[in-house]
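INFO  loader      accepted 1 record
INFO  loader      residues=187
INFO  predictor   begin
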Amino acid sequence: MKIKILIIAVILVSISFAQEHHRKERKKYNDKELREIVSMISSNFEKLEREYLTKLSYRDYTRAKTILIDSYDLLNSIPIPEEHEDDLPLPINNSDFNGLVESIKSEGFDSDKIGIITIAADYHYFLVEQVLELVDLFVMSDSKIEVVKITYPNIIDKNNSHRLISAFTFSSDKEEVKKIINSFPVK
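INFO  predictor   done
INFO  writer      dumping tokens
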């Protein structure tokens, strides 16, 4: 009996020590990192709901959906200070961008590809390098220029806009891209 009590005491002391060590080792996050973590968790929840919950039976789906909603509520209760206006938004992450590129490549017609880019531009910001990659998915100049028109308002590194102009061969196309760039005043 004494040995059992001693073993339980050792286990409790070990657990207490491990918890204290874990608290000391816990990383402190700044506001921007915390926002990114919350965004990634939210994105994972959306993916979980979209790709996996729909495959469950109705009974399991309703239970899982309840847990997911509770998790969303907990996630939204994390106090995150508002972003300052001078903070730049983050560009679409590489994983989402690669998914976007694959979606565009799977379409046969330029109009359908443009439609996908239009939807993506409603929800994401881009780097000039990413827009150049999107432009390269098209053959026709008109479609390439349309990609620039759609994405340019959401480009966060407009200081690299000159690279968009040099991506075109014909001077008339270059002039059209210059007009798009000049239609957005420099801040």
